[in-house]
Amino acid sequence: MFVLANFLVAVAKVLDIALTLYMWIIIARAVISWVNPDPYNPIVRFLNSVTEPVLYYIRRRLPLNFGGMDFSPILVILAIIFIQAFLVQSLIQLARYLG
Questions:
Q1: DSSP type of residue 66
Q2: What are phi and psi of 62, to 5 degrees?
Q3: Among 21, 54, 57, 63, which residue's beta carbon has the most beta carbons within 10 A?
Q4: How far is CA 2 from CA 64, 82, 92, 93, in A?
Q5: Residue 70, SS3 per DSSP
Q6: How far apart are CA 53 and CA 70, in angstroms?
Q7: What is the mean pLDDT of the chain?
């Protein structure tokens, strides 16, 4: 069972790193949107292409646009924090129980 426990710990760590990286990408997109960037810049295009599907889904389900400010990045960051606190920690605790 220790192999399964090690596998679950590895999955939890990779998921935690991926979620943290995506959270920083969301933050970078929000900060860049404040300065009206060049839409043809490769970095801006990458940030938009990676984050827009998730942000568009949130905007379509919950219109969180008050006073010209878009609160969908905040909601996505809160969801990432919740997933990290719930799913990642649950996987690690399950691995400890199995190991």
A1: E
A2: -130, 100
A3: 54
A4: 45, 27, 13, 13
A5: strand
A6: 15
A7: 92
pLDDT in tens, 22-34: 999 999 999 998 8
Say which amino acid occupies 45. R
Res. 48 pLDDT band, cuts 50 70 90: very high
Residue whose pair of structure tokens reads 């809160």 in the numeric block: 78
- Give the Å distances, CA to CA, from 98 to 12, 84, 91, 94: 14, 20, 11, 6
- Residues shown for the chain: 99
pLDDT of residue 1: 80
Closest CA to 12 of 99, 91, 94, 93: 91
Scan for tokens 């801006």, then name that residue: 44
Domain ranges of the chain: 2-98
